Amino acid sequence: MVMTVEVLAGLAFMFSTSILLQILACALYSNWWPMLSALMYVVVPMPCLFFGGGSTSFLTSRESNGWINGAKFLTGFSAIGSIAIPAILHHANLIEAGAMWIAFTSFFVLVCTVLCYHRANLDEDW
After folding, report:
1. 4, CA 20 to 30 Å: which among 33, 75, 100, 121?
2. What letter does residue 5 receive in the DSSP assignment?
3. Do 33 and 102 form a contact (C-beta atoms < 8 A)?
């Protein structure tokens, strides 16, 4: 399936917005600790690339292969880490509440981008 230009432009805009929010969480408060959660953005797709063949379809399957179960665990662990890192940094008083909420918003936009990409790949009539 070939995605249309509008869908690709929308996904690129959403991804850019997520990265901009992550940078703003750091720059507005002159504290670069929230950038640690951006490291998890790199780690989240790695199980899909290594164990799923680059496809996200294994995440919704009921297959019980050991590698697939490991990939599902690592994907979930990385996704929860993206939420936990700003919360832990705020609890340790390393970042302010505003930076934490901006980082949460950045993660929410990134998750929406991934879900839209997944849906665009599954649907023929997007």
Report:
1. 75
2. H
3. no
> In sequence order, which residues have a C-beta less than 8 Å from that of residue 78 and are 6 or more positions away?
40, 43, 44, 46, 47
Q: What are phi and psi of 47, to 5 degrees?
A: -60, -35
φ and ψ at residue 107, rounded to 5 degrees: -65, -40
* Per-residue tokens: 102: 């901006």
Alpha-carbon distance 11 to 25, whole Å? Answer: 21
How does pLDDT run across 21-43, given as a tens digit for each residue? 999 999 999 999 999 988 888 88
pLDDT score of 126: 45
What's at 110, amino acid-wise? Answer: L
Residues 89 and 96: their CA atoms lie apart, in Å, by 9
Q: Do 77 and 101 form a contact (C-beta atoms < 8 A)?
A: no
Inter-CA distances, 47 with 12, 26, 35, 104, Å: 22, 27, 21, 22
The pair phi, psi for residue 79, each rounded to 5°, is -65, -45
CA angle 10, 58, 86 (to 5 degrees): 60
Contact 100, 89 (CB under 8 A): yes
